[in-house]
Amino acid sequence: MIVVTTENIVGHRVTETIGQVFGVVVRSRGLGGNVMAGLRSLGGGEIKEYTSLVEDTRRHALDRLVQNAQLMGADAVVMMRFDSGEIGQTMNEVVAYGTAVKLAAE
After folding, report:
1. Which of 69, 50, 49 shows the shortest CA–CA distance to 61?
2. What's the CATH architecture for 2-105?
3. Which of 10, 56, 81, 95 is the most buried (most CB within 10 A)?
4. What is the pLDDT of residues 18-45, one digit of tens each?
């Protein structure tokens, strides 16, 4: 599955727009991770526990986006974007979204 952040894909042309597609993931860091992150924040710098959480969550959201696009019969997703936010103080939500399309070679 081709997933791009652009409107066009080199060597292909969009023959059909299927519609919006997305993948949503909500994750929570465990108590131990929150404690370690809290301790690291006292010293400043990168908080690796949260960086890892966000990276894994983005990958999972992108995987779900691809699965949903495949279910729709898409060949690709164009204009893919990520959005994220917090739910409460311990949960992180990540959404990968874009437009599912059919392609033909140029």
Report:
1. 69
2. 2-Layer Sandwich (3.30)
3. 95
4. 999 999 999 886 655 555 555 556 666 7
